[in-house]
Amino acid sequence: MPVPKNEYLSEVWKDGIFNNKVVFCTGGAGTICSAQVRALVHLGANACIVGRNVEKTERMAKDIATARSGAKVIGLGAVDVRDPNSLNKAAARCATELGSLDFVIAGAAGNFLAPMTQLSTNAFKSVMDIDVLGSYNTVKATLPYLAQSAGKHQSDGTTPCPSGTGGRIIFVSATIHYTGLPLQTHVSVAKAGVDALAQAVAIEQGPLGITSNVIAPGPIGGTEGMERLARPEDLTASKKRIPAGRLGTVKEIADATVYLFSDAANYVNGETLVVDGGAWRTHGVN
Ligand code: HXC
Fold it and tell me: Name one Pfam family in it (predicted).
C-alpha cells in the first residue's frame, strides 16, 4: 500500500524539480532515509538505495517506487559501507543503470545504548567504522560521478541551470554530540566525525561545484532509532522539554532534504541543518 503523499512531503514543493536526477542513498531502507528518498522520487528523481539486508533493501526500493508513476528505484542489498569495494560496485551500477549519480545521502549508521564501561573496543570501533569510515567510503565511491554531475550543470551564477544543479551530498548526523549524552559515547564521537567530514568535503570539493551539507535530526517519531534507543519514560520527559512540544516527523526531515538538494540551496555549502524543534538547546535542562 503506497504511503500517502502528504505523509512524506509538504505541499510547497513543485512536482518535477528533480526530473533527470539520480540519488544514491546508503542506509536507504531505514525509516529516515527511505522517507528522504521517497520525497525526491515523488519530485522526479530516480534512486538507488543500498543496505546490508538484501530482502529489506529490495522491498523498500519497490515501495519507494510507488511514489511516482514511472519511477526507477534500485535496491542493492549486501552492501556494507565498511567495505569500499561493495560501495564502488554499487555506485557504478547506479550510474550505469540510471544514467547518472547526482545526489548522495550518506545515511548508514550504527547505534545501541551502552555505558562506556560496557563498551568494548570493538563495539566503539564498529560504530566509528559504520558512521565515519562508511561515510568516507561513500564519498570516495561517489565523488567521480558527483563531479561529473556538478560539472555538467555548474553555472557562473548568472546563467540559469536549465535542469538544476547536481553534485550534492547530505550526511545524516545527529545533535547528541553538541552536548554529549550518556550511553552514547560511541555515537557522539562518530557523529562529530561525520560533521567534520562534511565540512572537509565542502571545502575541498566545493571548487568542483559539489556541495556537502549535514542534516541533524532531533527526536523523530516512528523511527527505528527512537523505538530501539529511547525508553518510554525518557520520551515523556523529553517531549515536555522540546520547545516545539512534540517529536519531529520523517516528513520534516524529507522537507529539509528537498530544500538542500533544490536550486534554493545552490549557495549553501558546509552547513548543518538541525531539524529538531529546538530540542538540543534544552539538553541537560530539567
Ligand atoms: C554493548 C554491543 C551492543 C550493545 C553490539 N555490541 N551491541 N556492546 N551493548 N547493545 C558490540 C558487540 O558485542 C561487538 O563487540 C561489537 O559491538 C560489534 O557487534 P556486531 O554485532 O558484531 O557488529 P555488526 O553486526 O557490525 O553490527 C553493528 C552494530 C549494530 C552497530 C553493533 O547495532 C548495527 O548493525 N546497527 C545498524 C542498525 C542501526 O543501529 N540503526 C539505527 C541507527 S539510528 P565485541 O567486543 O563483543 O566484539 C541512529 C540514530 C542516531 O543512528 C541518533 C541517536 C539519537
Answer: adh_short_C2
